[in-house]
Protein backbone atom coordinates (compact mmCIF):
# COMPACT_ATOMS: atom_id res chain seq x y z
CA UNK A 1 0.00 0.00 0.00
CA UNK A 2 1.21 3.46 -0.89
CA UNK A 3 -0.23 6.40 1.05
CA UNK A 4 1.68 9.66 1.35
CA UNK A 5 1.01 12.30 4.00
CA UNK A 6 2.52 15.74 3.37
CA UNK A 7 2.81 18.00 6.41
CA UNK A 8 4.06 21.55 5.89
CA UNK A 9 4.34 24.66 8.02
CA UNK A 10 6.66 27.28 9.50
CA UNK A 11 9.25 26.75 12.24
CA UNK A 12 7.97 25.74 15.71
CA UNK A 13 4.34 25.34 14.62
CA UNK A 14 4.38 21.77 15.87
CA UNK A 15 4.61 19.93 12.56
CA UNK A 16 7.54 17.75 13.66
CA UNK A 17 5.78 16.53 16.80
CA UNK A 18 2.53 16.00 14.89
CA UNK A 19 4.31 14.21 12.03
CA UNK A 20 6.03 11.73 14.34
CA UNK A 21 2.76 11.00 16.16
CA UNK A 22 0.86 10.62 12.88
CA UNK A 23 3.50 8.23 11.49
CA UNK A 24 3.37 6.16 14.67
CA UNK A 25 -0.44 6.10 14.66
CA UNK A 26 -0.72 4.86 11.08
CA UNK A 27 2.43 2.73 11.14
CA UNK A 28 4.08 4.77 8.37
CA UNK A 29 7.73 5.72 7.85
CA UNK A 30 8.60 9.34 8.73
CA UNK A 31 11.06 11.79 7.19
CA UNK A 32 11.77 15.20 8.69
CA UNK A 33 12.90 16.87 5.48
CA UNK A 34 14.10 19.89 7.44
CA UNK A 35 16.96 17.71 8.68
CA UNK A 36 18.21 17.47 5.08
CA UNK A 37 18.51 21.25 4.90
CA UNK A 38 19.90 21.47 8.43
CA UNK A 39 22.58 18.94 7.49
CA UNK A 40 23.50 20.98 4.42
CA UNK A 41 23.45 24.17 6.52
CA UNK A 42 25.73 22.59 9.12
CA UNK A 43 28.20 21.58 6.43
CA UNK A 44 28.09 25.12 5.02
CA UNK A 45 28.98 26.47 8.46
CA UNK A 46 31.90 24.01 8.43
CA UNK A 47 33.14 25.50 5.17
CA UNK A 48 31.61 23.19 2.54
CA UNK A 49 29.91 24.83 -0.45
CA UNK A 50 26.10 24.39 -0.04
CA UNK A 51 25.49 22.85 -3.48
CA UNK A 52 28.35 20.38 -3.02
CA UNK A 53 27.03 19.50 0.44
CA UNK A 54 23.54 18.82 -0.94
CA UNK A 55 24.79 16.72 -3.84
CA UNK A 56 26.94 14.52 -1.60
CA UNK A 57 24.64 14.32 1.46
CA UNK A 58 24.68 10.95 3.23
CA UNK A 59 21.98 9.57 5.54
CA UNK A 60 24.46 9.35 8.43
CA UNK A 61 24.65 13.16 8.45
CA UNK A 62 21.02 13.39 9.62
CA UNK A 63 21.66 13.32 13.37
CA UNK A 64 18.94 15.46 15.01
CA UNK A 65 20.97 15.92 18.20
CA UNK A 66 23.70 17.73 16.28
CA UNK A 67 21.40 19.76 14.02
CA UNK A 68 18.96 21.41 16.46
CA UNK A 69 20.92 24.61 17.15
CA UNK A 70 19.79 28.15 16.30
CA UNK A 71 22.83 28.73 14.06
CA UNK A 72 22.12 25.59 12.05
CA UNK A 73 18.44 26.53 11.74
CA UNK A 74 19.34 29.91 10.23
CA UNK A 75 21.91 28.29 7.93
CA UNK A 76 19.27 25.74 6.83
CA UNK A 77 16.87 28.52 5.87
CA UNK A 78 19.60 30.21 3.83
CA UNK A 79 20.67 27.10 1.91
CA UNK A 80 17.01 26.20 1.31
CA UNK A 81 16.68 29.36 -0.77
CA UNK A 82 19.31 28.05 -3.24
CA UNK A 83 17.52 26.33 -6.18
CA UNK A 84 20.42 23.95 -6.86
CA UNK A 85 20.34 22.76 -3.24
CA UNK A 86 16.61 22.11 -3.39
CA UNK A 87 16.94 20.27 -6.71
CA UNK A 88 19.65 18.01 -5.30
CA UNK A 89 17.42 16.95 -2.40
CA UNK A 90 14.16 16.45 -4.35
CA UNK A 91 14.93 12.92 -5.55
CA UNK A 92 15.85 11.79 -2.03
CA UNK A 93 12.49 13.02 -0.70
CA UNK A 94 10.36 11.66 -3.56
CA UNK A 95 11.94 8.22 -3.31
CA UNK A 96 11.09 8.17 0.39
CA UNK A 97 7.52 9.31 -0.28
CA UNK A 98 6.85 6.54 -2.80
CA UNK A 99 7.94 3.69 -0.52
CA UNK A 100 5.51 0.85 0.11
CA UNK A 101 3.75 0.84 3.46
CA UNK A 102 3.02 4.56 3.65
CA UNK A 103 5.12 7.63 4.36
CA UNK A 104 4.85 10.88 6.30
CA UNK A 105 7.06 13.77 5.16
CA UNK A 106 7.18 17.09 6.94
CA UNK A 107 8.80 20.25 5.67
CA UNK A 108 7.94 23.48 3.88
CA UNK A 109 7.17 22.46 0.30
CA UNK A 110 6.05 18.84 0.55
CA UNK A 111 2.43 19.35 -0.48
CA UNK A 112 3.21 22.00 -3.08
CA UNK A 113 6.42 20.76 -4.76
CA UNK A 114 7.78 17.43 -3.49
CA UNK A 115 4.52 15.44 -3.28
CA UNK A 116 1.72 17.46 -4.93
CA UNK A 117 -0.16 14.18 -5.46
CA UNK A 118 -0.01 13.20 -1.77
CA UNK A 119 -3.20 11.55 -0.59
CA UNK A 120 -3.37 13.75 2.54
CA UNK A 121 -1.94 17.23 3.12
CA UNK A 122 -1.76 19.29 6.28
CA UNK A 123 -0.47 22.82 6.80
CA UNK A 124 0.42 23.26 10.47
CA UNK A 125 0.74 26.85 11.64
CA UNK A 126 0.60 29.14 14.69
CA UNK A 127 1.19 32.82 15.38
CA UNK A 128 4.83 34.03 15.33
CA UNK A 129 4.57 34.94 19.03
CA UNK A 130 3.38 31.47 20.04
CA UNK A 131 6.04 29.82 17.91
CA UNK A 132 8.77 32.06 19.34
CA UNK A 133 7.67 31.19 22.87
CA UNK A 134 7.87 27.48 22.09
CA UNK A 135 11.26 27.76 20.42
CA UNK A 136 12.63 29.95 23.24
CA UNK A 137 11.59 27.41 25.87
CA UNK A 138 13.14 24.63 23.76
CA UNK A 139 16.43 26.51 23.40
CA UNK A 140 16.62 27.45 27.10
CA UNK A 141 15.92 23.83 28.06
CA UNK A 142 18.86 22.89 25.85
CA UNK A 143 21.17 25.26 27.71
CA UNK A 144 20.97 28.32 25.45
CA UNK A 145 21.07 31.80 27.02
CA UNK A 146 19.15 33.50 24.18
CA UNK A 147 16.23 35.80 25.01
CA UNK A 148 12.64 35.78 23.72
CA UNK A 149 12.98 39.00 21.68
CA UNK A 150 15.92 37.55 19.74
CA UNK A 151 14.05 34.31 19.07
CA UNK A 152 10.94 36.20 17.91
CA UNK A 153 13.06 38.28 15.52
CA UNK A 154 14.67 35.08 14.20
CA UNK A 155 11.25 33.45 13.67
CA UNK A 156 9.94 36.45 11.74
CA UNK A 157 13.14 36.71 9.69
CA UNK A 158 12.98 33.03 8.79
CA UNK A 159 9.26 33.28 7.91
CA UNK A 160 9.98 36.18 5.56
CA UNK A 161 12.82 34.31 3.87
CA UNK A 162 10.86 31.06 3.56
CA UNK A 163 7.66 32.71 2.28
CA UNK A 164 9.32 35.09 -0.16
CA UNK A 165 11.98 32.91 -1.75
CA UNK A 166 11.65 32.51 -5.51
CA UNK A 167 11.95 28.72 -5.48
CA UNK A 168 9.26 26.69 -3.63
CA UNK A 169 8.07 29.37 -1.18
CA UNK A 170 6.38 28.30 2.04
CA UNK A 171 2.60 28.28 1.51
CA UNK A 172 -0.30 25.87 2.00
CA UNK A 173 -1.23 23.60 -0.90
CA UNK A 174 -4.64 24.53 -2.30
CA UNK A 175 -6.09 21.25 -0.99
CA UNK A 176 -4.29 21.20 2.38
CA UNK A 177 -6.12 21.00 5.69
CA UNK A 178 -5.07 24.06 7.73
CA UNK A 179 -4.29 23.20 11.35
CA UNK A 180 -3.65 26.24 13.59
CA UNK A 181 -2.04 25.02 16.81
CA UNK A 182 -1.82 28.42 18.54
CA UNK A 183 -4.49 27.55 21.11
CA UNK A 184 -4.20 23.75 21.03
CA UNK A 185 -2.44 21.33 23.33
CA UNK A 186 -0.13 18.79 21.73
CA UNK A 187 -2.73 16.06 22.25
CA UNK A 188 -5.48 18.18 20.67
CA UNK A 189 -3.32 19.06 17.65
CA UNK A 190 -2.37 15.41 17.08
CA UNK A 191 -5.99 14.29 17.41
CA UNK A 192 -7.16 16.86 14.86
CA UNK A 193 -4.38 15.87 12.44
CA UNK A 194 -5.25 12.17 12.71
CA UNK A 195 -8.95 12.95 12.20
CA UNK A 196 -8.22 14.98 9.05
CA UNK A 197 -6.02 12.21 7.61
CA UNK A 198 -8.49 9.46 8.50
CA UNK A 199 -11.16 11.44 6.66
CA UNK A 200 -8.93 11.46 3.57
CA UNK A 201 -8.35 7.71 3.82
CA UNK A 202 -12.09 7.05 3.97
CA UNK A 203 -12.84 9.59 1.25
What does this molecule look like?
The chain has 203 residues and is of the alpha/beta class. The protein has one domain: Rossmann fold, CATH 3.40.50. Helix content is 55%, strand content 12%. It has ten helices and five strands. The protein has helices at 15-26, 34-45, 50-55, 64-67, 70-79, 83-97, 110-114, 128-141, 148-164, 186-202; strands spanning 4-8, 29-32, 103-107, 120-125, 177-180. A five-stranded parallel beta sheet has the order 2-3-1-4-5, sandwiched between helices. Helix 2 (34-45) crosses helix 5 (70-79) and helix 8 (128-141) packs across helix 9 (148-164). The protein is globular and about 45 Å long. It starts with a strand and ends with a helix. The model has no long low-confidence stretch (mean pLDDT 94).
Amino acid sequence: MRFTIAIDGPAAAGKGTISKAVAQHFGFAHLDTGLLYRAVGAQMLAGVAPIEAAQTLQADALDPAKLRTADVAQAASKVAAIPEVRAALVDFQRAFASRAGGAVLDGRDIGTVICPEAEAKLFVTATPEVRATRRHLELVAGGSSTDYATVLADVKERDARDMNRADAPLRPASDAHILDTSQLSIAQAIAQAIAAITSKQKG
